[in-house]
Amino acid sequence: MINFYGYNDARAMAAYNKRNLTKIFLIYALVCFFVSIIAILIPLYELLYVWGVFLFLLLITLFAASFSKYEDKALKKAGIKTKHIFRIEEFKLFKDNNEIKQKEHIMFYSYKKYILLELKKSYYYIPKDELQISINELTERLREVIYGTSIEKIIESIKDYIDCNAIKGNFDFTKDTFVWILGSNKFTFYIELREILINHEKLRFNKHYVNYTHYHIDKSEINETIKEFNEKYDGILR
Length: 238
Fold this sequence. Notes:
Largest sheet: 5 strands, antiparallel
Number of strands: 12
Structural class: alpha+beta
Radius of gyration: 26 Å
């Protein structure tokens, strides 16, 4: 179980606006870049005025950001609760002891000093200096909430399937991968919560590899894929 605080205060507003505006600025900067190239090649230097619009938007953003302290005071004066306790337990996320059931709306963005957590109609600033764990670990736990499982749990279920179904070959497991040697075939499984990446290599002289192949499958299909490979390549050995 993991507990942490999230704030929907002026810091959350600033972080939310920063994320959205950064995306807009990057897109607009790319547009300005291509327009500049066209303006030089034609030449039609009036097109370079797009940079003036870009600077104007930047000034508006900086001006708006200066009001963050006043927004915080207004929220507190209005008696709006800005500090919330979150809990992650058994791949579920709770806010103030209420479960967030719409997992498809959970999004998060990791930065050096904080995490911005977005829910369906709200967003929260999670400061690094108040966390009992690292930012990387918290983002991994949030990712597990979204997918409803963990890499460790996936690997444990794979081990159980292998043991119960007499799958042939040699297996070597690590934290998030496992290697399966079946005759002259080597399968390397890279476990991700979104999907499984498989590299299939043909062994030659126990050291040299040829016929490199990639597979991308959903994590729910992993046991069926193991069974399919076992039947296909075990038959070749006989």
